[in-house]
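User: I'm curious what two different proteins look like when written out as structure tokens. Can you demonstrate?

Assistant: Sure. I'll show them one after the other, since each token string lines up with its own sequence. Here's the first protein:
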Amino acid sequence: MLIYNTLIKKKEEFKPINPPNVTMYSCGPTVYNYFHLGNARTFIMSDIIRRYLEYKGYKVKYVQNITDIDDKIIKKANEENTTTEKIACKYTSAFLEDIEKMNVKVATVYPKATEHITEMIDLIKKLEIKGVAYNVKGNVFYDVFKFPGYGKLSGKKIEELESGARVEINEEKKNPLDFSLWKKAKKGEPYWESPWGKGRPGWHIECSAMSLKHLGKTIDIHAGGNDLIFPHHENEIAQSEMANEKPFVNYWIHFGFLNIRKEKMSKSLGNFFTAREIFSKYPYGIIRLFFSQSHYRGPLDYDDTLLSSVEKGLEKITNLIDELKKQIEKSDQNGIVPDFNLSDYRKAFETAMDDDFNTPQAVAVIFDFVRDVNKVLSSDTNIAKSFFQDAIKYLKDTTQNVLGIINLEQGEKVENIDLLNDLINVLILIRQKAKEEKLYAFADEIRDRLNEIGVILQDGRDGTDYKIKKKN
């Protein structure tokens, strides 16, 4: 298996530290808002990589952090006149709900930054002892010029980074590139006690500390978006390798941007859709297939019209599955086994995925398989049940278990959930129009009736959301 390693800028053979075990860390959300579709691409493609490693027989310990203390969270809490804990709790729950809807497998661990403050303080103290961290009136910085390998991930010289880096201006720093390890608490901000006074950790030290605790000093794979290469991942390397005196990560995997009209989708540009919005319109299979049809390292342009063609492709797969299930019910083992070598399609799928997780080629193999099985089905031959069972197993192993596009066991259930979500959203829209027309009693009745059947509406600044109350 070959993986493109951002650190060396080329593909190399994957050799885990302790096979068949694989340690994998994927950067998770900063929980101050619903994550956008560009973030969803990172989460889904990380999930597919993890799934394929498991398909190959590896035991993956998959860690995805949750940043639950940050400047953005503090700003959001101030805007809504609430606490950072409530903001973080709300959007952590939303994150977990949304990735479940995206059919992303649950991580082995979801470490939260606020639960690892002790580990972060210990790591900063190590860096102080080694002379690379310095304290200025309660603010602790990392001196990047004291780490000889700084810039090796982004591939730039430190002088070039210094002149063009996206860093905040801070007169307390020795150099503009020096980054915060510990931030002195400002009035009204949450804080923790530390050897440097009351404060909170910097963003970069959080991931280093959580990775170290849950995966060890050196890990196999670290994944994240292209925008994290610098400064976040570069700083993680500097901290971790200086503190632990070992390589931090053996394989760095980075995902390309999701663009809207050739521009990166981002909250700062305002040209984004939340994953929650998109998944209220499209089932997860369409979005996962859409992402799988482009290579994870390249950019991808989002367009609603593209999803229509993706939907047709998904229908070809699900239609074949429906037909195969029917044939299994009515056929027997005494039929003819067609001259159809399933192992060729399995080998072709694996060849594609072994080449740096080439999902576009893997999807093409699946569609070739669908086409060729349909040709067999169109014959009038009495076909043995085993052929249909083997065809279903192939789709389960590849399209379900690796790409996560379908769910053979719960197909009908998923469709019913999608229909339920659509109906609830229609009722929310009707209720909103009733309120606009000052039909408040009618709007309240819709809310109350939904509440009686376990659908709880939640009105907020960004509109109305809902949750379904679990039955005991």
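Here's a second, unrelated protein for contrast:
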Amino acid sequence: MAAKTGGSFTSAVQEMFGSLAHRYDSFNHWASLGLDYGWRRAAVRSLQLSDDAMVLDVATGTGDLAFTAARQASRTAGFDFSPQMIEIAVHKAQKGKVAGVSFQVARAEQMPYGDDFFHGATSAFAMRNVKPMLGEVLAEMHRVLRPDGRVAILEFSRPPVAPVRWAHGLYVRSIMPRIGRRLVGSAEPFEYLHRSIEEWLSPEEFAERLRAVGFAEVGYRRLALGTVALHFGRKEG
């Protein structure tokens, strides 16, 4: 999959996540050792939302980050290119009677929203999956934000400290695929996770990508011993 680009890459990733949808939540919680709850809360806090804010969650998956944002925002919209993921997100919203949240199927490089619309935009662990069109996706996030709107993006990262980097690499490369095969019936998502992290940008490189599409006050904060980075920026008024 690493060698694929453009449409073939996107189709392969879409197919993989579609087949994983029914076990996606357990995949996330297990793979992060339960730390993903705190990561999502940190991302939403960084948006500095007011009670009447509208938030967009890009590549929402089954909606967990959108639900976290909904606790602080007036309205939250989430979209994903996987119909299976959106079906589960809608079911979770209905089951939990979560108000002010809507979901739809859409593509990150062609967001179906107007200019200058949202107060905040989030995304969790999806930028690696749109790497071939990363510039387009980030430009779209910038476009749909209102002036002074903020972006918060969670993505995996390679730890800067060598022993942690070695241990994390061993965990993702060798341990997760073995246990993952038993958990979700396939090692492929875990093998893909390892490859995509290895091929991903450094936090500094990703910060430059955010600046390149017009974001100001760009920065990042390392979480979980540097295995995750919370990236942030603001659309200038």
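A detail about the second structure: The two ends are 40 Å apart (CA to CA).
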